[in-house]
Amino acid sequence: MARALYERYPDFSEGRMAKIRSHVVSRTSCAEVARELGLGEELLRHGRAASREELERLAENRNVLAALLEAALAALFLEHGFEPIEPAIVAAFDGRIEYATTSHVDFKTELQEALARRGQQVIYTVLDAVGPPHERTFTCAATVDEERMGTGTGSTKKSAEQAAAKQVLERIELDSGS
Prior knowledge:
Ribonuclease iii, N-terminal Endonuclease Domain, Chain A; 66% helix; alpha+beta; 3-stranded antiparallel beta sheet; Double Stranded RNA Binding Domain; 2 domains; flat
């Protein structure tokens, strides 16, 4: 991904490219690519070690889908080497690359940078985690100078923190715009 991004976007700064690459190869993105490639359906069709109900649950699980993709890519690499599989892998991630280059994907980093310019820091705290271990919903708070400035909810701690960071950024923009 790093080489593909560098070749496509040679004018992007190192920091911007690192953020994009990080998003493109994240667990969430890998799970999305696995869904698009039908790896969950393949698990259902060929899985034998668990009940049908368990296989259906696994076939929808983000971590399992990401792991399936990583295993499939590793197998392709071991069988064929890097050069023959690179174009297909990059093509499989094209949608994620497009999303990462056209959408804002990292509110936490943006908030951290904005606060650093002001001499401030953010602390994230998990306020709540509900649901069974494989289907938790997290609620996190973003606190700046001992003031809770944002709260977010998500299916992972990271996504809840991102939502909280987005709220803080919106507040900061409103405060500085007035």
